[in-house]
Amino acid sequence: KLNAQALVLGDDFHFGKDRQGNSEFLKNYGFQVTNLHTIELEGERVSSTRIRQVLQVGNLALAAKLLGRPYSITGRVQYGDQIGRTLDFPTINVRLNRHKPCLNGIYGVEVICETTSLTQKVLQDNPEKPGIAGYHENSLYGAGHVGTRPAIQQEHPEWRLEVHFPDVSANLYGLFMRVTFLHYLHGELNYPSLEALKAGIDNDVQQLRQYRNDTTQFPF
């Protein structure tokens, strides 16, 4: 039981059978209701549905405009199945709070740790592998993957957020990370073998390295 006393709702909010419930219905039951007016960008309504749609097609720049900030996902680094390590591309496995995120595919990402300096942690673990600097202080740049990994045989495929940091060898388990999505490379691919998957990852990492080299300013 939440004992809610006040609600902040969009002007198109409806609920219940046939969407008959609305703000007036709640007011009649004694709730204090504040209605938010519609916000438009370039003549179109800003809504969570629209934001999800632009994320699904990889339009990160428009998503950032709609949100007022770059799109990011936060989560704690947890243990995975170590497959990336066997392919020579170790990744951090960031716990997803949503069963299925809006994104799918390969991205250039910037990662910060919410509890400590990520760059200092990486240097402490291996000074010879400092990684690729992100655009902001204490951040690292990496190759992010969101999807179910169709190239890997799994009895119960799960959605995952994985990030490979080139030139890093560090223990990052348990750290709470914010992964900001900067550049969409392509959707998730189903490679015919692990060898083809490894070659595909290598190509993706090289392209994302080049993107970072060519982009000196934060893209949004």
Automatic annotation (TrEMBL):
Pathway it works in: Cofactor biosynthesis; FAD biosynthesis; FAD from FMN: step 1/1
Stretches that traverse the bilayer: none
Keywords linked to the UniProt accession: ATP-binding, FAD, Flavoprotein, FMN, Kinase, Nucleotide-binding, Nucleotidyltransferase, Transferase
Gene Ontology MF: a single term: riboflavin kinase activity
N-terminal signal peptide: none
Domain Riboflavin kinase: start-end pairs: 66-213
One GO BP: FAD biosynthetic process
Nucleotide-binding is among the record's keywords: yes
Reactions catalysed, as given in the entry: FMN + ATP + H(+) = FAD + diphosphate; riboflavin + ATP = FMN + ADP + H(+)
Pfam families registered for this protein in UniProt: FAD_syn (PF06574), Flavokinase (PF01687)
Alphabetized InterPro entries for the sequence: FAD_synthase, Riboflavin_kinase, Riboflavin_kinase_bac/euk, Riboflavin_kinase_dom_sf, Rossmann-like_a/b/a_fold
Stated family: Belongs to the RibF family.
Listed name of the protein: Bifunctional riboflavin kinase/FMN adenylyltransferase
Organism: Acinetobacter baumannii
